[in-house]
Design brief:
This protein is an alpha+beta fold and 109 residues long. The protein contains 2 helices and 8 strands, in the order E-E-E-H-H-E-E-E-E-E. The strands form 2 sheets. Strands 1, 4, 5, 7 and 8 form a 5-stranded antiparallel β-sheet that branches. Strands 3-2-6 form a 3-stranded antiparallel β-sheet, covered by helices on one side. The mean pLDDT is 86.
């Protein structure tokens, strides 16, 4: 299994779009988006980003699951082993007051 993590950092503001794009030969390129609301915190943005990833149908069909713990999002790829190519995960934010850090991917036996 492979696990990716990224953090939500900065100062939340309403109407900012956060996109997480996951690309892998077995799933193609899949994106999940979240648009912030006025009451959002870094933790609630992380929770919403995890929910957006979990709501993406192709990722869900492959068993990909995301969770949030505070402002850190963890994505698990149960169908990938140590010999599989790593997924490419990119994060982007329309505005710069909050950003998503570059994901770190690790292999777990």
């Amino acid at each position: 299994m492979m696990i990716a993590t990224f953090s939500v950092v900065g100062t939340p503001a309403a109407s900012h779009t956060h996109t997480i794009t996951i690309t892998h030969p077995s799933i193609g390129s899949r994106s999940a988006n979240y648009i912030t609301v006025g009451a959002d915190t870094l933790n609630s943005i992380a929770t919403a980003c995890a929910a957006a990833i979990n709501g993406e149908s192709v990722l869900g069909a492959k068993g990909v699951a995301a969770t949030a713990n505070g402002a850190v999002v963890t994505i698990k790829f149960p169908f990938l082993g140590a010999s599989d190519p790593r997924p490419t995960i990119t994060t982007s934010t329309v505005y710069l007051s909050v950003s998503l850090t570059t994901p770190t991917i690790t292999v777990v036996n």
